[in-house]
Predict the structure.
Amino acid sequence: MNDSSRPLLQACDVSKSVSGPEGRLDILCKINLQIQSGESFAIVGASGSGKTTLLGLLAGLDTPDSGSIRLQDHALEQLDEEARADLRRNLVGFVFQSFHLLPALTAEENVMLPLELEGSPDARQRARVALQAVGLDARRKHYPAQLSGGEQQRVAIARAFVHRPQVLFADEPTGNLDQRTGHHICDLLFALNHDHQTTLVLVTHDTALAARCDRGIELEEGHLLTSGNDPSA
Amino acid sequence: MKLLMLALRTLRREWHLPELRTLAASLVLAVASLGVVATLAARIERGMLASAAELIGGDIGIAAPQAVPATFATAARQRGLAITRTASFPSVAFAQQKSQLLDVEAVDSQYPLRGALELGDAAGRIYRGRAPTPGEVYLDHRALVALQLKVGQRLQLGGRELTIGAELRRQPDGGELLALAPRALMSLADATRAGLLGVGSRARHRLLLAGPPGAVQNWRQWVRQITLPQGAELVTPEQTRQRMRSAFDRAGAFLRLTALLSALLAGVAIALAAQRYARRKRLEVALLRALGSSRKRVAGLLLGTLGALALPAVAVGVLVALGLAQLAWLFAGPLFGDLPTGLPLVPSLAAAATGLAVLAGFALPPLVRLLDVPPVAVFRQSVARRIRRFDALYLFPVLVALGLIWGQSNSLRLAGMLAASLAGVALLAALLAGSLLWLARRMAPGAHPALRLGLAALARRRSLSVIQATALSLGLCALLLLAVVAPALLQGWRQELPADTPNWFAINLQEGQRAGFGQAVGGIGGEHLNMLPLAVGKLTAINDQPIDRIHFSNPRTKDSADRQLRLSWSATLPAANQVIAGSWAGAHPDHAEVSIDTVWRDRFDLKLGDRLRFRVGERSIDARISSIRKVDWSSFRVNFFLLLDPAHAADLPHTWLASFYLPRGHAQALASLSRDYTNLSLIDVDALLDRVREIVDRVGSAVRWILGFSLLAGALVLAAALASSAAERRHEAALLRTLGARRAQLRAAAACEFAFLGLVAGLTAALGAAAAGVWLGRAVFHLNGFVPPLEPLLLATFICAVTIMLLGLAGTRQVTRTSPMRLLREG
C-alpha cells in the first residue's frame, strides 16, 4: 500500500438514480470513499447493488446526479464528456468481464488502440512490450477468435496497461473464465499492478479475489454496507 | 384470426426497429420504381395504339413510292368510301437567312378522313382546322422556332413562296415517334406544281380511305385479288399497331430493366434488413418454441408480421408510382405528342405483385431459417447461431432475380446479358473492394489512426462492405453511362467524322441537271461534290429461283425481299467501304457483276458467285456476286447495300444523288439552288445530327430521374447495412469512448470508412461505365480509339465518395454519441 496524503480517487456523497415506469429508482445513495494512489480496492455486492454504476462513475464514464468525484485533481462532474474522454485516455485503463476486443484487429492492434488514440508514434513497439509482459508476444498476429478466453483476457490486460494508466478499473475480470484460468489472470493483474504502481479498482462477486485487495467496500441496494481493509468480511 | 391479431400487435411493438422501417422503405421503392416506369410506358403505348386509325389518318390505305394509280381510288368511290391523297417527303425551307430541313406532308382538301387537325392562330388560340389551301403552309412549333417565323409570315419551300396559315399543333397521322425533323403541312397541289413529287423523288405517296366497315372490308378483299403496284403496300391500323408495339417494346425494355435494377437493389436492402430482423428474433423464436409454440405457429406469426408490414408498404408504393407517373407525364408527355389517355392502374398493380415477389425472394430465406431454431437455444444462444440447414434457401433470391429479369426483358438473351453484366459489376466491385482493403491494411501501420480505425471497421464487416459497394456501384454505373459516357460517345462520334464529310445531300437530280448543279454548288462555296447514280428496283430472283417462291423464315429477310431497293454503280470502290471477300469488279467486266455488303450476305445467306436478278422499271439485270464489302454505315457518306458494275448498269432508269460539304452559315445560298432545281430534295445532315443530339438529351433527361431510383436503392442498401451493423457499431463506439476516444476521432474514423466505401463504389462505377463506353464505341459507333471522358468520371467518383461519406456520417451520428457505460452494462 502506498502512503499518500491526497487520495487519487475520491467520491463524496455520490448519488445516482434513473427514471423507470414506476418513478425514480435510486441506484446509488450518498456514497463516500477514498482510494489512495497505488492501492488495490475492491467493490463487492450482489447483482443490482449498484457496483457497476459506481465503477462507471469513478472512471468518468458517467456523471453522478449529486455529489462529487475527484480523479487526481479533476472534479469529474464538472467536466464535459469530451474532457472526461481525454482524462480516461491519459489516466485510466479498463479490463472487462467480456474482454471487449475488436474481432477484426489482431492482438497487437487491439493493444495499440489506446496508444493510437493518444497519437503515440511508437504504438506498435510499446504494444509488443505489453504483450511480452502478459506472455503473448508469440501470438501478437492472432485475431481474438483464434485465442482462448484466458488469452483474450491477457490481451485485454495488456491493452489496459500499455499506456501506463494511473488507475485501472476491472469489472469482473474473471467472470467469464474457469477457476484456474481466472486465478492466473488475477495473478497477472496484481503483478502488473504492483510493477507499474497502478491503482486498481476491482468490481467482483468473488470474495477470494476481493480479499487479495488492500481495501474495499460492499454495496447493498445502492447503499454502502461495509467499508474497511477486508472487503470480504 | 388470433394469429393475425398477434402479428399486428407484434408489428406495432416492433415498428420502431430500423430494419423493419428499412424493409418497408425498400418495398415502397421497389414497387414505386417498377410501377412508375410500367405506368408511363403503358400510358404512352395505350394512347398510341388506341388511336391507330387516327394514326394512319383513315380506316385503311395504300402507301407507294409513286402516286397510287387511279383505279384504287375509283374502286373505293364505287364502294361509297371517302378518299384522300397525301405525300410525305423531306425538304428544306428557307426564310430570312435561315434554312431548316422539314418533314413535309402534302395533303389534298379532303384531309383528314379520321381524327382532327388541330391548329393555332397568330394569337396562340387553338382551333380545329381544315387542310391547307394552295399557297398556304402550316408549320409545327419546332419549325417556327428554327426558322424564327410567326403565323402570317412567308417562307420558301420547294422553290415556291408560301404563307404560314397556322401553327400545326396536332395532326392525325402525327408522323414518326420522335420525328427527326420539324413538320410542315402543305397543299398537294402546290407540291405537285413545285415538282417535289416527280419521278424518282423520295416522296412516299398514300391513298387513304374511310367509310362503313363493310365497305372497307369489301375494298380490302378487292385489293387482295389484284397485283399491287411495285413497292406499294397496304396500310392498316393493325399493322401500324404491330409496328409501334415492337418499336415501343425495344425502347421500353431499357427502362423496364432500369426499374428492375432499382427493385433488385431494393431486394438487397430487404435481404439485409430481413437478416438483421431474423438475428434479433432468434431468442424470441427459441422462447416461443420453449413455451410450446409449434413451428407452424411460429411460421404463421412471422409471415403474418411480414404481411402486415408489406401490404401497406405496397399500397404506398402503388400510390407513389401513380403520383410520379402523373408528374412525369407532365414533363415527358410532350415528347411523344399529345396523347390523350387516362392513368392506367394495371401496371402499378403488376408492380405491386413484383414487389411482393422481391420481398418473398429476398426476405423469406433468413426468416425461414428461424424456424429451425431449437427451443434449447434459450439456454445456449450459440446453438441458434450454428443453424445452417436452410443454406440452399439463399439461392432463392438469385432465382427470383433471374426470373424477374427474364420476365421484364422478354428475352432470354437480354436477360442473360443483363444478369452477366450485373454479376460482372458485382465481381468487379468485390475484387476492387477486396484488393483496396488488402492494400490499405498493408499500408495501415503508418497510416493515420482514424484511417486505420475506419479500415478496420470495413474489414470487420467485409461481406457487408462488398455488398454496399456493389449496390452503390450498380446504381451509379447506370447513371454515369447515361449522363457522362453516352453524350461523350455522341460527341466523339461526330468529331471523328473527317472534315470533308458531306453535310448536305441532294436527291432526285436528273441526268440533264448534273453539270449545272455541279457549277451551282461550286458557286455557293460547296466542296467535295460527289454524285452517284440511284436506281430504284426490286430483287426478283436468287440463283434463278423467283423470290416469291423462296421461303424466308426470318420476317426481316422477307420484308427486305418485298421492299424496293436502291441500287447504284461505281467504277471505283467508294470511301468507307472495304472489300472483305472476292475482288472489286472494276469498270468493264465481261458479265454484270454486283458487290453486296455483309448485312445482305447475312440476311439472304449469300456467297460469292451467287446470282441476283433485279427489275428496275421495265428493265431486268442478272448480276453475279463478285465481292462482299464491309460498309461503315456511321460514316455519313452515301452508302449502298448493292453496287453494280457501271458497264452493265449505266442504262438502267435512274436519277442522281449528290453529296457535298457546305460550311455552316452558307445555307442561305441554297435557297437560290432550291428555286432553280425545284425537283430536288435537299437534306441537311448537320440539322439531323443536331436533332439526334437533342433527342438523346431530352430522352436522357427523362430517363435520368428513373435511374435516380437505382441510386436511391443503392442508398437504401447503405441504410440497411448501417441498420444491420448498428448494434456492432455502437459496441465498438462504446469501447473506443471508454478507452478515451474523442467524438471527433470516432467521426474521423467513420468518415474514412465511408469515404473509402464511396471511393470503391465510385471507382467501380466509373470503370464499369468507361468499359461499357469503350465497348459501345467499338461495337456500335466504330470508334476504336474512343477514350471515355476521364475527368467527369473521376469527378463523379470523388462526388460519390464525398456523398457516401456524408450519408454514412449522418447514419452513424447517433453511434458516435453512444454512452461508454453501455460496455459495462453489457458485461
Q: What stands out?
A: Chain B touches chain A through 28 residues (CB under 8 Å). The mean pLDDT of chain B is 79. DSSP finds 26 helices and 22 strands in chain B.
